[in-house]
Design a protein that fits this description.
7 helices
Length: 116
């Protein structure tokens, strides 16, 4: 799999096919297995996979959580149930991916002296 983010989009579209059930912990286990398999095969992380490693810390900052909890536990705590936690994962993941674009846009506005 060359594009990790494409894999996540496929999971978003058909979670039961990849996870068995709509569960945030199944998603966490799937991704842990994905990383484990790549490591066992000696396949280096792609840029996207490396970037995703920062998701947990970003999520902790987003929810102002100082804990050793994994992202699945944090999302479940802030969701009604596992199904909504999975949906929330994907919306927050999009926010996480787009954070750089927002930062770059803000930097350009500051550089140009324009406030929109």
């Amino acid at each position: 799999m060359d594009n990790f983010y494409d894999l996540l989009q496929k999971i978003k579209k058909r979670p039961a096919m990849y996870l068995g059930r709509h569960s945030i912990f199944s998603l966490q286990a799937f991704l842990d297995g994905y990383y484990f398999a790549r490591r066992e095969l000696g396949v280096p992380l792609t840029e996207q996979e490396s970037e995703f490693q920062d998701f947990l810390q970003w999520l902790r900052q987003r929810f102002q959580v100082e804990t050793g909890q994994l992202w699945a536990s944090i999302l479940l705590f802030h969701s009604a149930d596992e199904r909504s936690a999975v949906e929330r994962f994907f919306s927050l993941f999009e926010e996480f991916v787009n954070r750089e674009k927002v930062r770059e846009f803000d930097d350009k506005r500051v550089e140009s002296g324009r406030i929109l």
